[in-house]
Amino acid sequence: MKIPFNKPLIIGKELEYITEAATKNIWLAGDGAFTHKCQKWLEQRLKCPKVLLTHSCTAALEMCAILCNIRPGDEIIMPSYTFVSTANAFVLRGGIPVFLDIRPDTLNIDETLIESALTEKTKAIVAVHYAGAACEMDRIMKIARKHRLLVIEDAAQALLSTYKKKHLGTIGDLGTVSFHETKNIISGEGGALFINNKRFNDRSEILREKGTNRTRFFRGEIDKYTWVDTGSSYLPSELTAAFLYAQLENADRIIARRCKLHALYHRLLSPLAEKTDLEIAGRNTTGMTNNGHLFYILVKDRQERTALIRHLKQAGIEATFHYVPLHTSPAGRKFARTAGRLPNTVRLSERILRLPLYYDMTEAQVQKVVDRIQRFYEK
To answer: What are phi and psi of 27, to 5 degrees?
Structure first.
């Protein structure tokens, strides 16, 4: 019984909707009927003022950097423990990521370190909600308002997770999510930009349409469209949106299943964590809900992790880890700087191991993973 780390899911009318887009709507390029359906679903469900689908979360982050008017030398506060796109989006505009350490309980940015890292060049704060767990957004927003900074939420892993009854991605000025095939709700590649500050409404549409006011033209607000600003082609294909809409229709079912598996891992591994140095992913804290995106454990060190990965692989179980901290990477040393030492980032990145978790995974497969881990520590 092989257990992959991830398994992409078709759960509803994905193929039917793709066929409808291609043969009935006869619209394959972006911004068609299914794109608008997805955007409306997200706006209504998340209570977000404006949502624009993009071809990736990376694209949405790049749009954030442009909307924030990042210029060469501007500094952007963010954790080092994140995917490269979080930093790259701002580096492309000449911005300088300023890496902070993370909290050991959530692996999110340590909000207590933010103010000491600010300079006259600081322009924005990026809050990355790792594993669907919320950053301390009240504290981050308070700091941002005090110092007149913009806040971008990188909620790539956090669709439908909440912080004090607010959906992640809808609290800061801008937010981004991912629909990559490794996420809960998928479209292969895909993402979305959440615009929570209305000052960005008009320009976001222009940037997404290659710097033109084409969107206003299609709404009948102007009689022709033209080039009015910088921009790029950030639209997803209508086929991508058609697949995504079927996933959104089943979002509650998908999230519920993943949360159930997440809770099962937690229950089965808790006795082992009490007897060994093993630590397991935390449960929801007061006022927060998690979307069950991933389940991780923290082992003793890198050597133990390597041995455990090999042990699981021998049983047909695929486990993996991420990220290499950005401040230790060649590009990170070239394009960014750190604010102080980052001991948690370095230590935890060497200890973390992500376990298989996907919709079609059975309780028996979770039990097999746990049994194999227990056998490893018994040795």
So the answer is: -145, 110
Containing structural domain, residue 58: 14-249
Strand 96-100 versus strand 75-79 pairing type:
parallel
> Is 66 in contact with 93 (CB distance < 8 Å)?
yes
Place of tokens 């700087």: 337
What total number of domains does the chain contain?
Answer: 2
**Is 66 inside any structural domain?**
yes
Do 194 and 232 reside in the same domain of the chain?
yes
Q: Which residues pair with 78 in a beta bridge?
A: 99
Contact 125, 144 (CB under 8 A): yes
Contact present, 200 and 174 (Cβ < 8 Å): yes
Residue with tokens 């322009």: 123
Say if CB 32 and CB 20 are below 8 A apart. Answer: no
Q: How far is CA 139 from the centre of its chain?
A: 20
Q: Give yes or no: residues 177 and 274 share one domain.
A: no
221 and 337 both lie in a single domain: no
Whether 200 is covered by a domain: the verdict is: yes
- Cis status, amide bond into 130, omega within 30 of 0: no
Boundary residue ending a domain (200, 218, 249): 249
CA distances for 65 relative to 98, 119, 194, 228, 378, angstroms: 15, 18, 13, 18, 49
Q: Report pLDDT for 6.
A: 97
* pLDDT given at position 25: 86
- Which segments of the chain have a pLDDT < 70? 1, 283-286
pLDDT at 283: 63
- For the sheet containing 352-355, what is the strand order? 279-280, 295-298, 352-355
**Segment 32-85, tens digit of pLDDT:** 999 999 999 999 999 999 999 999 999 999 999 999 999 999 999 999 999 999
The radius of gyration of the chain's CA atoms, rounded to the nearest angstrom, is: 21
How far is residue 1's CA from residue 102's CA, in Å, rounded to a whole number? 37
